[in-house]
């Protein structure tokens, strides 16, 4: 029982990060039908910037803010200089551009920072909390709490603000959105800014648990992608649920089978979904096709 | 003159869809453009809204050249379109669809305008919380019209509002168009249903394979023998 709880804590913690990454995929996919394979690099940049800035003596809150702004600017630059100029190209070409961008960002991170692993001190100490025989690190609460807050804010944005609804409308019917006077270029730019911001937030809260280096985004990005695919590409809530499922499956697999297979589980999930339920758990059907 | 299209041409790749089209619409007029399927009617409206590349010619709106103006700016200038096939935001509520229609006028008298639309189309009020995709075809057409009106347009472009509707609903939609015209909205109506459109229109244009082949008063076109043979099945 204590063991299971321990695995669940671990699974929910990494699952929350996958959920944020999955949401990042979903937002950009909705705005453009592009799968942005540089999503993981947003996570890496957020973590690396915070870790190196605090190591340089900048107070944590200021470092976090700077890292979020930096990552958001990187996301917007990616859209402006790599995606926007290719907007008439087909989707596959644009996806390949995002893969190129992810390689470029990893290279840039090596130049700006280095190839070393960087650590960040936990936000509120390292005294474990004991619950029913299992231990929970305070940073896990930060990861889970901040992720859920970010998801709630995002829900509010897309369902309660006119610009958020305009972004959703663009994903449902781009032509009609244009005819309503919605600037679809702006929607695309904001979608990259939002996704980058989500990635940064995930990277910042997870770094005290996982360390980070210039390559840290590869795995996190792929797991976020499997979360998005599992939830049904373009379905925000699906990506969140998908992220938590991937995280928990991974923790249970590592705990009960072998930690050697931990990373393989996300790939098994991607393959399973692509073969047996290409629409994911909550894939779109019906309503918008009427 | 509110709208002045001069010498407009447009292509899809190498296929020419419009060839040297000139059309004018005066303030307060209801002008109809009729033509068979594939004549280029939708392409012309897409050009007017700025979502279709123009290869030659110009568009002036209220005296200003808008040939290269971005689609969202044209909405702000007062050009609203009810697209072919309604194109409502299916998963979103009727209410959200209407609010998005007012996207360019955020905040300003949103509540008043919503109320005006719900008075004009009581059936939409009953269904305001439901996803637009669950509405019937006729109701979706009403929604598409109301959504376009939410921008308080100076020129309303209607692309085949009667398409795919039962005769009773067609009559209802054209009654709505007529009442809008009575309220002073300038309307450019594109239709395959030439009889209904020309009956309502002050003036009409006939489009054939991308070119305007005839233009006259609405009732004159209705009485024209060639029109009767080609479009009215008389
Ligand atoms: N997306 C497209 N790609 C290529 N050709 C198109 C496209 N849309 C329309 N066309 C062609 O342009 C011509 C005009 O089409 P359209 O404007 O839709 O006519 P209408 O609205 O009068 O039925 C037709 O020959 C049609 O086949
Ligand atoms: Mg058409």
How would you describe what is shown here?
The complex is a heterodimer of chains A (290) and B (234). The model of chain A is unreliable at 285-290 (pLDDT under 50). Chain A is globular. Chain A contains eleven helices and two strands, in the order ααααββααααααα. Helices cover 74% and strands 2% of the residues of chain A. Chain A has 290 residues and is mainly alpha-helical. Chain A has one domain (2-276): ABC transporter involved in vitamin B12 uptake, BtuC. In chain A, a hairpin with a 2-residue loop joins β1 and β2. With 234 residues, chain B is of the alpha/beta class. Chain B has a single domain, classed as Rossmann fold, CATH 3.40.50.300. In chain B, β7 (155-159), α7 and β8 form a beta-alpha-beta unit. In chain B, α3 packs parallel to α6. The longest helix of chain B has 16 residues, at 167-182. Chain B starts with a strand and ends with a helix. In chain B, 47% of the residues are buried. The chains are: A mainly alpha (290), B alpha/beta (234). The interface between A and B is medium-sized, with 21 and 31 residues. Magnesium ion (MG) is lined by residues 41-42, 84, 160 of chain B.
Observed structural traits:
heterodimer; A: 290 residues; mainly alpha; ABC transporter involved in vitamin B12 uptake, BtuC; two-stranded antiparallel sheet; 11 helices; 2 strands; 74% helix; 2% strand; globular; B: 234 residues; alpha/beta; Rossmann fold; six-stranded mixed sheet; four-stranded antiparallel sheet; 10 helices; binds adenosine-5'-diphosphate; binds magnesium ion
Summarize this entry quickly:
The complex is a heterodimer of chains A (290) and B (234). Helices cover 74% and strands 2% of the residues of chain A. Chain A has 290 residues and is mostly helical.
């Amino acid at each position: 029982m204590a063991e299971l709880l321990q695995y669940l804590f671990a699974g929910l913690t990494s699952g929350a990060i996958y959920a944020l990454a999955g949401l990042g995929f979903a937002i950009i996919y909705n705005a453009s039908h592009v799968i942005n394979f540089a999503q993981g690099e947003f996570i890496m940049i957020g973590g690396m910037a915070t870790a190196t800035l605090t190591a340089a003596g900048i107070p944590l809150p200021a470092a976090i803010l700077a890292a979020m702004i930096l990552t958001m600017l990187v996301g917007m630059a990616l859209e402006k200089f790599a995606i926007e100029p290719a907007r008439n190209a087909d989707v596959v070409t644009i996806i390949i551009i995002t893969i190129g961008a992810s390689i470029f960002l990893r290279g840039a991170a090596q130049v700006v920072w280095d190839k070393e692993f960087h650590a960040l001190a936990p936000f509120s100490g390292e005294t474990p909390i004991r619950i029913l025989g299992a231990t929970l690190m305070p940073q896990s609460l930060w990861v889970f709490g901040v992720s859920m807050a970010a998801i709630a804010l995002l829900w509010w944005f897309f369902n309660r603000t006119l610009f958020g609804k305009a972004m959703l409308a663009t994903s449902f019917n781009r032509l009609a959105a244009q005819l309503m006077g919605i600037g679809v270029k702006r929607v695309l730019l904001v979608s990259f800014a939002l996704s980058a911001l989500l990635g940064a937030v995930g990277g910042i809260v997870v770094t005290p648990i996982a360390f980070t280096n210039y390559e840290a985004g590869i795995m996190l990005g792929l797991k976020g992608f499997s979360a998005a695919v599992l939830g049904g590409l373009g379905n925000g809530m699906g990506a969140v649920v998908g992220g938590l499922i991937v995280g928990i499956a991974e923790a249970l697999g590592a705990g009960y089978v072998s930690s050697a297979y931990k990373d393989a589980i996300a790939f098994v999930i991607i393959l399973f979904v692509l073969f047996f339920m290409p629409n994911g758990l909550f894939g779109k059907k019906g309503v918008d096709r009427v | 003159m509110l709208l002045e299209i001069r010498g407009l041409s447009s292509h899809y790749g190498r296929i020419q869809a419009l060839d040297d089209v000139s059309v004018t619409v005066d303030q307060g007029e209801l002008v109809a453009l009729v033509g068979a399927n594939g004549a280029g009617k939708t392409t012309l409206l897409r050009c007017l809204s700025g979502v279709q590349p123009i290869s030659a010619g110009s568009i002036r709106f209220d005296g200003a050249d808008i040939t290269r103006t971005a689609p969202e700016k044209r909405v702000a200038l007062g050009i609203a379109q009810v697209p072919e096939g309604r194109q409502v935001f299916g998963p979103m509520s009727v209410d959200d669809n209407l609010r998005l229609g007012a996207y360019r006028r955020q905040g300003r008298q949103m509540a008043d305008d919503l109320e005006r639309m719900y008075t004009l189309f009581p059936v939409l009020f009953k269904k305001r919380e439901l996803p637009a995709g669950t509405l019937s075809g006729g109701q979706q057409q009403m929604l598409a019209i109301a959504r376009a009106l939410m921008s308080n347009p100076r020129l309303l472009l209607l692309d085949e509002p009667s398409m795919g509707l039962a005769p009773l609903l067609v009559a209802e939609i054209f009654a709505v168009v007529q009442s809008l015209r009575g309220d002073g909205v300038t309307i450019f109506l594109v239709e395959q249903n030439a009889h209904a459109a020309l009956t309502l229109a002050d003036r009409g244009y006939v489009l054939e394979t991308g070119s305007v082949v005839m233009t006259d008063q609405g009732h004159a076109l209705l009485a024209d023998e060639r029109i009767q043979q080609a479009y009215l099945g008389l």
